[in-house]
Specification:
alpha/beta, Rossmann fold, five-stranded parallel sheet, 12 strands, binds phosphoric acid mono(formamide)ester
Amino acid sequence: MKTFLYANDLGDLNRALAEAAEIKRERYKYEHLGRHRTVLLIFFNNSLRTRLSTQKAARNLGLDVVVLDVNQGAWKLETERGVIMDGDKSEHLLEAVPVMGAYCDLIGVRTFAGLSDRRADYEERILRQFIEHSGRPVFSMESATAHPLQAFADLITIEEHKRTARPKVVLTWAPHPRALPQAVPDSFAEWMRAADVELVVTHPHGYELDPLFVGDARVEYDQMKALEGADFVYAKNWSCPGVTCPDDYGKILSTDRSWTIDAAHMAVTNDAAFMHCLPVRRGMIVTDDVIESPRSLVIPEAANREISATVVLKRMLESL
Ligand code: CP
């Protein structure tokens, strides 16, 4: 596997889930694969889970890990080609990326959407420069439009906790005070469509996800109706994806707190498990009682980030 951005980069998801289960049983089984190999983890944006879980996954595989926080100690990078670099940016990504590639065997990149230029975000312009110019296998640690390590961990968590063969999984928008990227809901919708679940997506008008990810999944604008009989409730905020209203791309269209997941929302479900990728704003996305309930999976879900990353890095090491 030379790139990891979309569900189909991993191939058969049942095989990937079996690998995840194996790694969970024997975390260090493939420790030999990373011997004398280095993974470089590059963060353009903040992280807690991705930063820790990907380092742990790398060590499970015997890899050396180098972490670079681009905005803390590195030269400020220009990402656009054709500009006259007479401002505060000292180095161009086109030199920095192959230099980074010279020091490692694999590269992980976290680079959030700018939320101002939809085309640049949906073309994954920064991640693509790493893929094209580093000479190394590259995996997304959440890029402009996708967070596949999170979606894979979510799928592992659903597989471990499902009580029916084909559970109903509801992805619901919830309010947030800041404009957030669409990467998590994009990937979640994409991966759930590829998995054996009944997916329903619910959000206010204007928040329609890109068809590349949401495909022909059922969209229900009445949140309570969508939640009826759900086995899993996956809450997340996202800003306007600009699908039905291009001029509003990246903007907050609603702060309607009636979309916050509380006990009344959970009461119409099939005793659903609650999921969120974290970090989560309590009182905005979800109430304290729901996130603290025995049906909340947010901690095991975060723990499975180590497992999803171990499978992905293992696949990349096997392809070197
Ligand atoms: N869910 C997730 O990616 O968390 P971090 O932003 O803390 O890495």
